[in-house]
Design a protein that fits this description.
Layout: H1 2-6, H2 13-27, H3 30-36, E1 42-51, E2 59-67, E3 73-80, E4 90-97, E5 108-112, E6 120-128, E7 133-140, E8 151-157, E9 168-169, H4 171-174, E10 179-181, E11 184-185, E12 187-188, E13 198-204, E14 210-216, E15 224-230, E16 245-252, E17 258-264, E18 272-278, E19 290-297, E20 304-308, E21 311-317, E22 324-331, E23 343-356, H5 363-366, E24 368-375, E25 383-390
Parallel strand pairs: 6-11
Antiparallel strand pairs: 1-25, 2-3, 3-4, 4-5, 6-7, 7-8, 8-9, 10-13, 12-13, 13-14, 14-15, 16-17, 17-18, 18-19, 20-21, 21-22, 22-23, 23-24, 24-25
Bound molecules: 2-acetamido-2-deoxy-beta-D-glucopyranose (NAG) (3 copies).
């Protein structure tokens, strides 16, 4: 109120502080002001990228989403040709947006596993900002169903996701095993230790189950095996409530540690997410760094996780029982606590999700995160939807 300004002595401490903050903000640090604004996510735009039967494909599943070095968005999915099952023959489907998700290229298929009974499974996409390339890592014959051995494969795009190299067999370097990367994104370390390193994490099968990360210190030319978080009992048949870390999403904190948010396959300890942290750039995942996030209830699914400007974001079907209620949560305390006013993205059937954001540093790019998720009315695998979320209520 203007009256308050006239009688300076009436102005409370709060008012003076607010005025001071405004002054400092206006004069000095517009970027800090963005950070101070309250987060109030608003579903800003949403469109379907894939649906059952599109382009004569039975089912699209396992959506991945990434930014590219030039600020485009790339969306990937498994195009399951004949059935919705995890095994079976597939294409890798891609769509690309050069206008921050407003419009998307037609569906293109960048790889085809022919008539394989147990074909390709996605996968993790990782962007190397130094070489400006986009790398896709996926598995082949993961379930060893009428095939052997399993292989870890890589494709690379040097032109913003328009064209892709032929698949390269990383198992020649990594050794032969069932390794299912992601599903989600891999990271390039932006902070020490091991700045510039590519880190892709995923999970194994009964012969070697748990969470594993593979590392590249030369922009994806050579890969080696890094951190492991093994299941208990390791390499043995599991029972309900055993410790079985499964599909996972790593992200880097601003102190250079890597946090991995993990699917808790057999509901060990809780019907919630396992969280594990690597302090050495993905070399190790010590047992002391394993915790359970009881706030992140989960029906056993692949979830989305992202760190942007010091705030953590998490998406999953927020239910202990069913794949429904795709919900966005955020944490201002590095995942110690989550804000209570979670935002429901879709009340109905919903499954896997993945998030990304553009980090150009522009005020505009700071306002948005992007979510891709499995969405349906009856079943969660009916469509794959892209959602643009405004973090500050549309303002
Ligand atoms: C990949 O390489 C491994 C190890 O040499 C081999 O056993 C496997 O058959 C290869 N996979 C494919 C799909 O070529
Ligand atoms: C969160 O972690 C970062 C380092 O990654 C640290 O600088 C910051 O103080 C932490 N914030 C809180 C609220 O604990
Ligand atoms: C959906 O998730 C929110 C956030 O956790 C929760 O409050 C709500 O009860 C959930 N709804 C259903 C139907 O599970």
């Amino acid at each position: 109120m203007l009256a308050g300004v006239g009688s300076g002595s009436n102005m409370g401490t709060r008012g003076r502080r607010a005025a001071l903050t405004l002054l400092v903000c206006a004069a000095l640090l517009p970027c800090v002001c963005t950070a101070l604004k309250q987060i109030e996510p608003l579903l800003y735009d949403e469109q379907l990228l894939w649906g059952s039967g599109w382009a004569e494909v039975n089912t699209y599943r396992i959506p991945l989403l990434t930014f590219t070095p030039t600020g485009s968005l790339l969306a990937f999915a498994e195009a399951r040709k004949e059935s919705s099952r995890d095994i079976g023959t597939k294409f890798i489907a891609v769509r690309r947006s050069t206008d921050k998700g407003a419009t998307w290229s037609p569906i293109s298929f960048i790889e085809n596993d022919g008539v394989r009974v147990d074909g390709m499974n996605l996968g993790a996409v990782v962007v190397d900002e130094e070489t400006r390339s986009v790398i896709l890592v996926y598995s082949m014959c993961f379930h060893k169903y009428q095939c052997s051995p399993s292989s870890t494969m890589m494709m690379e795009s040097k032109d913003d996701g328009v064209s892709w190299t032929a698949p390269k067999n990383l198992s020649i370097q990594l050794g032969v095993r069932s390794f299912a990367p992601g599903p989600g994104f891999g990271i390039q370390k932006r902070y020490m230790p091991h700045k510039g390193r590519l880190v892709v994490c995923g999970h194994g099968k009964v012969d070697m189950d748990g969470v594993f990360c593979i590392l590249s210190d030369d922009h994806g030319k050579n890969w080696r095996n890094g951190a492991e978080l093994k299941s208990i009992p390791y390499k043995q048949e599991k029972k309900q409530l055993d410790f079985v870390p499964d599909e996972c999403q790593p992200f880097e904190m601003r102190d250079g540690s890597i946090v991995i948010n993990v699917r808790n396959q057999n509901n060990y300890h809780c019907r919630c997410r396992i969280v594990v942290r690597s302090l050495d750039g993905g070399e190790t995942l010590p047992i002391e760094q394993v915790s359970f996030d009881h706030a992140l209830v989960d029906p056993v699914v692949a979830a989305g996780a992202l760190q942007k400007e010091g705030v953590l974001y998490f998406t999953n079907p927020a239910s202990t029982e069913h794949r429904v209620n795709l919900t966005l949560r955020w944490s201002l305390t590095n995942g110690t606590t989550w804000e209570e006013n979670a935002v429901q993205i879709w009340a109905g059937a919903s499954g896997y999700s993945c998030m990304t954001s553009l980090d150009s540093g522009s005020a505009e790019d700071k306002k948005y995160i992007y979510i891709i998720y499995e969405k349906g009315h009856k079943d969660y695998d009916e469509t794959i939807s892209f959602a643009k979320v405004h973090l500050y209520g549309g303002l």
